[in-house]
Structure formats: C-alpha cells, structure tokens
Amino acid sequence: MRKFLIFICIFLMLFCIPIVKAEDITGTGMSQRALVKFLENIVTIVNELKSDFNILRDNFLNKTTTSGTMSFGSGESSGETTTTVNYAIGGKLYTFSASSNIRFIPQTAQSTPTYCYYLFSLNSSGVLTTTKGTEGSSTPSLVMPAVPANTAPIAAVLIYASSTAFQLGVSSTSTAVITTPTWYQLVGPISGTDFPTAISASDLALTGL
Questions:
Q1: How confident is the model at residue 126 (pLDDT cuts 50, 70, 90)?
Q2: Which strand (E) or helix (H) includes residue 129?
Q3: Which domain-ending residue is among 10, 39, 61?
Q4: Are residues 31 and 130 in the same domain?
Q5: Residue 198 banded pLDDT, cuts 50, 70, 90
Q6: Which three-class secondary structure string do you get for 135-186?
Q7: Residue 75, domain extent
Q8: Is 36 helix (H, G, I), strand (E, B) or coil?
Q9: Which of 45, 61, 77 is the last residue of a domain?
C-alpha cells in the first residue's frame, strides 16, 4: 500500500502540479519562491491522499457483512436482533449474537414534530453505540450521522415524533407512542456521511449495500 501511495504521489507531481515557468529557472537553479510553491503543492496533495486513504480504509475495513435484522424489541425502550451479526473492525472479523434485549444508551430528547435518524454501530468488544442525527421538520432536510471511529454500522432507524417528545433509551418504542419507525439494515462498506440527504430504500441499494 505504501508503494501504491508513492506511485500516486509521483503521478500527481508529474501531471497535476503546474509546470514551473521558464522565468522561475535561473542559472543556479529554481527560484526560492517557485520552489516553496512547488513543495507546498506536494504537501497539499499528500495530505489529501492521506485523508482519502483513511476514509477508504475505515469504509472497507470497518463494515457489517451479515445483517442482524435489527428492530425495536418487546421491551419499552430496547432493541433486538433476530440473527447473528457478522462484522469487521480493522479487517478483523467479529460476531454479535442475536439478542432480544439490547439496551439503548439514553439519547437527548427529540422534540416535536420532528424527524431524526439514529445510527447503531458495534466496536470490537461487541458494545453497541448509538449516534443521534440532527432533527428536522422533514426528511429531505436530514442527513445520516457519521459513523463513529473504530465501529461498524449495523442499522439505522428513522423516528418521527409527532406530538410527544421522544427520548431513545428512555421513552417507550411502541408504535402507540411513536409513528411506525423506518429501519435500514446496513451491510457493506459505508460511511454515515455517504448517505444522500433524503434517504430511501432505493438510495441504499445505489450505495452498494
């Protein structure tokens, strides 16, 4: 991988960095100002490559390979998975056994009337993390929250709190309390920031999940 990055850097230096102007070349070499600008361009490109590489690494090494078909459980504020979740963190495989009583960490209350996404992810110890998104008055105004570092996203749910404030981990999750939730089972390399603004089942299919 390091050799590949070096190759990319050389490629960009040859084809993407502006050619040094003739007037920048003196009898003793390149002018100091032109050299500094040239090196600054190299540093910028290398930093951009590093950032892109980190994003790709997390997306492909931290992922769920088998859905647990997550949903709200029979408990008033719990969740459940009906099958074993197979997932990877840093390229290493882990499993999360099916559970009928997954306790959610209490989140800040969701006001009314708003929509909000909640993202669920697992770390290498099998600890479930809940990430609450930003509330919005309509689904087109929403974005999925970013996936926490060193976790694999397994599912997400869209909640609409119509007339009663909702607090995940505290409030009842029965359909009598909240409008029927919309669940998304996340399988494959994906980052929360990759979700389109208005998410739908067809949108998820287009992301290659």
A1: very high
A2: strand 128-132
A3: 61
A4: no
A5: very low
A6: CECCHHHCCCCCCCCCCEEEEEEEEEECCCCECCCCCCCCCCCCCCCEEEEC
A7: 65-206
A8: helix
A9: 61
